């Protein structure tokens, strides 16, 4: 005799969970985007690649990103990461801080243009002892 629940009980429970959107690719993608932004921010492209690597359909991944990580937030996310990074690179000159921060942002999936812009801005603010009150 097998332990656990009867097959019809588990099938019914799974069907109900899907119906209530407790499980499924859309829910997974939405939660993945939220978790990434909260705990390990990346670029939209990098998060999309992660979702696609987990076999989430492209349209589902893009819908989750559009809902939880609109394109217009990407620069703000990158700038926040740059400011945090520069704050930990105390003692370096502005150019070195900007270069290391640019490399960091590129590793997180941001384009070179966004990475360089945000890194320069954060390095400049750090060198002047300023903070950005966004």
Describe the structure.
There is one protein chain. With 134 residues, the protein is an all-alpha fold. The chain has two domains: 7-69, no CATH class; 73-128. Helices cover 71% and strands 0% of the residues. It is built from seven helices and no strands. Helix 6 packs antiparallel against helix 7. The longest helix has 17 residues, at 112-128. The termini are far apart. 27% of the residues are buried. The model has no long low-confidence stretch (mean pLDDT 92).
Key words describing this protein structure:
single chain, about 130 residues, mainly alpha, about 70% helix
Write the layout of secondary structure elements.
Elements: H1 7-19, H2 25-39, H3 44-53, H4 58-68, H5 74-88, H6 94-107, H7 112-128
Helix pairs in contact: 2-4, 3-4, 5-6, 5-7, 6-7
* Biggest beta-sheet profile: none
User: How far is the N terminus from the C terminus?
Assistant: 62 Å
Which structural category fits the helices and strands?
A: mainly alpha
How many structurally independent domains?
A: 2
Indicate the low-confidence ranges by residue numbers. Answer: none
How much of the sequence is in beta strands? under 5%
């Amino acid at each position: 005799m097998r332990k656990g629940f009867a097959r019809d009980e588990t099938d019914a429970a799974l069907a109900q969970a899907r119906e209530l959107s407790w499980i499924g690719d859309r829910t997974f993608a939405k939660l993945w985007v939220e978790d990434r932004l909260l705990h390990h921010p990346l670029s939209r492209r990098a998060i999309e690649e992660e979702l696609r690597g987990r076999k989430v359909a492209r349209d589902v991944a893009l819908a989750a990103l559009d809902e939880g990580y609109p394109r217009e937030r990407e620069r703000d996310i990158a700038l926040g990461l740059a400011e945090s990074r520069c704050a930990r690179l105390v003692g370096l000159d502005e150019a070195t801080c900007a270069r290391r921060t640019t490399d960091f942002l590129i590793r997180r999936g941001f384009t070179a243009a966004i990475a360089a812009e945000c890194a320069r801005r954060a390095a400049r603010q750090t060198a002047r002892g300023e903070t950005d009150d966004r």
